[in-house]
Specification:
By secondary structure, the chain is an alpha+beta fold. Helix content is about 50%, strand content about 20%. The strands form three sheets. A four-stranded antiparallel beta sheet has the order 6-5-8-7. The chain has a three-stranded antiparallel beta sheet with strand order 4-3-9. A two-stranded antiparallel sheet has the order 1-2. A hairpin with a 2-residue loop joins strand 7 and strand 8. Helix 3 crosses helix 6 and helix 7 crosses helix 10. The longest helix is centred in the last third of the chain and has 34 residues.
Length: about 290
Amino acid sequence: MKKSLFLLIFVLSTTARSAIIDRVSAVVGEEPILQSDILGLRKEVASSQALASILKIDAAKMSDRDLLNRLIEEKIIKQALRDLDLVVSDADVEKQVDDIAKQNRLSKSQLEDQLERENISPAAYRRSLRSQIERRNIFERELRRGGGVTEQETRALYEQKAPKELKLWLVTGPEAELKKLGLRKNVDAAKLKAPLHANEIGWVAAASLDERLVEAAQKSVAGEALGPIKSGKQTQVFVVEEVRKGSEEEFQRMRNELNSAAQAKDFESRFNYWLEQKRREMQIIINVETKG
């Protein structure tokens, strides 16, 4: 029965001759995905960058096979929801629309006007919301247990995002001596002697330094000398005493935001694993003629 679904779909024309109108690109369980479904998705996201961003689809870079995989995922999710008796109703979707409008201090009509300006149709927007709710329901029922984000994971995410900071000393003196200093490694600025003069600056963001030093500063390590550079009539070298990624104070300020981002990353990772397991369990047949 499945194989027959890969036959072209025909319709009788008024002249009693057959005309091809569509092709089955895949079958998920008993449900077909048509070539027109792929083309429709591509057209929908191509017409609205905002919708493409919501759906996380870059139609310009995605092949038909990529879009087909996205549609297969949706079929898998819907079948799992039916098995779990977690079907999302139209009322659930409308409540989500109302909540989003309220969060943005808009009426529903104002929200839809905004969507229209972004070339997002009400139907497409509601489909995207339904998909988000479906994924969240699957996660809550099937994946939340045994999960969660640790303090270590939140800190690791902070270190990825945090700016590099340097604890610096400013060293001045004769240009010839500063040039020699700039070639040295493992410099201890506190032990420098005349004719060089060192003054502790403290912690500074690497990106905030003179543009002539920024690239070297981003790669620098403790004990490294940056420069020399001219500043007015004075020649300067900056010695790196310590290096860190951000600060504890900044981490605490960003903690809630980072935790939310870490949870989103955890959700995506675990959900993708769940999807892969379901793909292996379900009978999925893909038409080899779908462009890869």
